[in-house]
Design goal:
Helix content is 43%, strand content 13%. The chain is of the alpha+beta class. The structure holds iron/sulfur cluster. The site of iron/sulfur cluster has 14 residues, from helix 9 and helix 12.
């Protein structure tokens, strides 16, 4: 490839030739599908999204169908993808698109960002893929590619450096052409593909990289120095005692509460949570179960917290176990797939043995 070809031209050629094709959210200019895939792909592997994306679309084929759903059903379909604020925002965003934009996604990057849960990069993906707007995505993968390409020394833990990199990203976009939408689609997809397949976090495959001769980090043999990012603050640790009231008869029943709308696991179903062991034992004494099992503690990392979960199962009949003065529901084990559950809770409840 001649050395004079621009970054954008190389990337577009490479994407068309060697990039990823045939993913179910590619080849469409429908904002609903592009938006859904973008939100699912944040912090989640493509292989996992391949499983969830068609199921979600089957149940909610349009933004209107999603807007009309109950939040609980959206969270249930999201179960296992983690980072549930994405699902809650997805639902709120669908409602905003219907209420404020007549069910049609706005076509500009600037307006898209006014919707709940749509940040600059997701807005750029929708604007570029669906409307051909000349605006650059800059998600985590793309920041890594561009910071290596440009040997960008700014600390990407800082918003000001992220803004500077975005300004530079805008200068790399393809020139306006006779086929602006097709070029922006291939370019945007190329950025994603390069970050996902060659310019990976560890051991980037520079030998096969289509922009190697333009890459400043590679030229100076400093690939591993980029991106520059100071350490994320340490996660705070917290201990939770979880008390599962379990009636093993009739296929097995568990008593679950809905978590508050704010905070950890907001809106999801969960056994009662106690912040100290003494309160959990007081709740146990008030009901007198037929048997008690303390299960091994498990660790669960969230973005800002490290949870140490201490599960206890209290056995008995539904009539004898019903905790007084608290709101919750008895759910059959067979119904658990219909509600949103945090991943470690689902793993735990799946191990309960009915009679
Ligand atoms: Fe990334 Fe290597 Fe390509 Fe530079 S040459 S963009 S470091 S894969």
């Amino acid at each position: 490839m001649p050395k004079t070809l621009s970054f954008a031209t190389r990337l577009i050629d490479w994407q068309r030739r060697d990039g990823r094709h045939g993913l179910p959210w590619q080849g469409t200019r429908e904002p609903y599908r592009v938006w859904l895939s973008e939100v699912m792909l944040q912090q989640t592997q493509v292989s996992t999204v391949l499983d969830y994306f068609p199921r979600f679309l089957e149940r909610f084929p349009t933004v209107q169908a999603l807007a009309n759903a109950q939040q609980g059903e959206v969270l249930a379909l999201w179960s296992g993808l983690g980072y549930y604020s994405r699902a809650r925002n997805l639902h709120r965003c669908a409602q905003a698109v219907v209420a404020e934009h007549g069910g049609v996604f706005p076509s500009s990057w600037a307006v898209l960002q006014t919707l709940p849960g749509i940040g600059a990069s997701t807005a750029a993906a929708i604007a570029a893929f669906c409307f051909g707007e000349r605006v650059s995505i800059v998600d985590g993968n793309v920041r890594r590619v561009l910071s290596r390409l440009l040997a960008f020394e700014g600390d990407l833990a800082k918003t000001s450096a992220q803004r500077d990199l975005w300004d530079l990203a805008q200068t790399l976009l393809p020139e306006p052409s006779a086929a602006p939408i097709q070029d922006m689609v291939a370019y945007t997809q190329g950025l994603m593909d390069l970050g996902a397949t060659l310019c990976t976090r560890t051991r980037p495959d520079c030998e096969r990289c289509p922009v190697q001769t333009l890459c400043q980090a590679h030229a100076s043999d400093r690939v591993t120095d980029f991106p520059v990012k100071t350490r994320a603050p340490k996660r705070r640790s917290e201990r939770w005692w979880l008390l599962c009231w379990f009636d093993p008869s009739d296929g097995g029943w568990v008593w679950l509460q809905t978590r508050p709308q704010r905070g950890i696991w907001a809106g999801l179903h969960c056994p009662p949570v106690f912040s100290d062991e003494a309160h959990m034992h007081a709740a146990l004494r008030a009901v007198v179960p037929s048997a008690i099992e303390h299960w091994p503690a498990v660790s669960h990392a969230l973005t800002h917290r490290e949870l140490s979960l201490h599960p206890t199962v209290a056995y008995g009949s539904r009539q004898s176990l019903e905790p007084s003065g608290e709101s919750g529901v008895w759910l059959a084990l067979g119904q658990l797939s219909t509600v949103g559950l945090p991943k470690p809770i689902r793993t735990w409840l799946n191990q309960l043995q009915p009679k």
